[in-house]
Amino acid sequence: MAEFSVWAPRPERVRLDVEGTLHDMVRSDDDWWRAEVDARPDARYGFVLDDDPKVLPDPRSARQPDGVHERSQLWRPDPDVWSDAGWAGRSIEGGVIYELHIGTFTPDGTLDSAIEKLDYLVDLGVDLVELMPVNAFGGTHGWGYDGVLWYAVHEPYGGPDALVRFVDACHSRGLGVLIDAVFNHLGPSGNYLPKYGPYLSTGSNPWGESINIADADADEVRRYIIDCALRWMRDFHADGLRLDAVHALVDTTAIHILEELSAETDSLARELGRPLSLVAESDLNDPRLITPRDRGGLGMTAQWDDDIHHAIHAAVSGERQGYYGDFGSLESLASTLKNGYFHAGTYSSFRHRRHGRPLDTSTIPATRLLAYTLTHDQVGNRAIGDRPSQNLTSGQLAVKAALALGSPYTAMLFMGEEWASSSPFQFFSSHPEPELARATAEGRKREFAEHGWDADEIPDPQDPATFERSKLNWDEVDDGDHGRLRHIYRELIALRHNEADLADPWLEHLQVDYDEPQQWIVMRRGVFAVACNLGPESVEVPVTGEVVLSWGEPSVGANSTRLDGHSFAIIRATD
């Protein structure tokens, strides 16, 4: 016998469909419906609500073999498949994270094919792999942020069994795994949750209707979110989650859902005997997010820090449009590197108001903030999905890498960044509904046309070619400057791992010097100086010692070092 249950306060009648046979379900006072029936371990099933004959998938479905519009399938993790009993876990703090999208990481675009590239990542030196969302969403390919069945693994990636194999393979190589989880909205294709209950609130965010985490009947919706989050870490052995756009989780209750999730994650970590990390994406620049719960914070392990990205990218590239408007100077770069946030109760010209709150650098280590020069957002949300490698010199890319990887912050790379991949990462989707497909394509063109782009230049997200051209070209990894840059990334990561001064997490120990007209900046970290020349002409930088890594050919003198244009040198003091 198998027990089936579903929370469904809205319908007056719920029937269970198992392999085409209907069974009545019994409603409890808590609006959960339950039934016990004979069923195979891999039976297809779903629920029929009231008089609507359509069989709907289970909101907590573990597998959707035929897509998000069809019946669910029973699935349980097989404990005998795992070989990671000796895995002690890995915290993200101070590590190097590698963000990747399963569908475009390899030509086949599956979890099993991604396993074949794990030895490459080990050689690169990364500590954890961060998977863009692998939850079930409508269509065959997409970014994954329009998921509608959060508990299921996207079937074209290989489904839940493939995710088990992937995580197990990572752990066998010493790699941790983070899974990107989206709890702030639901996608437009296959979202049947409102038929069951009040999963959506009266509010909205840029991606659609908000999730009900504070309105009437929110308790079960909060439980739905937290149980899903814990499931990735318990059933799939993930080492943590990246939580998408938590600023869109509008919670007016006394105990914020992130604080609740943090507490339950810590409890699960104690039960499993290994560290578990929660990394939040937030637009708020609010240090309370990464402040421990016992000090009045929400207890997130770390957060993405877009200010660091903006400061590095604008200073190196010269771009000033949109949210880069307040960045670009070495003064803003130095301030951000030194303080974690650039906007910390200061005026944001992009938002037309004050933004952020100062970070207490004496109590919050830099490792609770992520530094990066590239993310899926910072490429894919550009009009044509162009990478910095398509616009900057190899030297400029190397300088960006030195600033991020040479900083005290936890570091993150986006797939292919380390070899200056020539492939764009464009916004792509595969909505099966014609009207939704058309609206998505037209909306994308209209959005960027309003910002001055020629609508004809904007890739159609529904065109399969947009997806195909976003796949990495692994043939170029070792070619020329591609291979040279990859070597630099590997050496920068090795220095982070092997040198105590470069692993120091405290911003109070960081010194930053710069010369705006000469376009050089130096991060001093113990005996090391990370000296970067952002300008095209060679300059004299007031540091000297032993060059341990460089891009270009630095010339060390008695009192200074000459750096080529668009180059860097990491110099160890010899006094």
Fold and architecture overview:
It catalyses: hydrolysis of (1->4)-alpha-D-glucosidic linkage in 4-alpha-D-[(1->4)-alpha-D-glucanosyl]n trehalose to yield trehalose and (1->4)-alpha-D-glucan. It is found in: Cytoplasm. It is built from 14 helices and 29 strands. With 575 residues, it is an alpha/beta fold. The chain has three domains: 2-56, Immunoglobulin-like (Sandwich); 95-498, Glycosidases (TIM Barrel); 511-572, Immunoglobulin-like (Sandwich). The strands form eight sheets. The chain has an eight-stranded parallel β-barrel with strand order 8-9-12-15-16-17-20-21. A hairpin with a 4-residue loop joins strand 4 (26-27) and strand 5 (32-37). The relative contact order is 0.09.
Keywords:
Immunoglobulin-like, 5-stranded antiparallel beta sheet, 22% strand, 14 helices, alpha/beta, DUF3459, 29 strands, TIM Barrel, 8-stranded parallel barrel, GH13_cat_dom, 575 residues
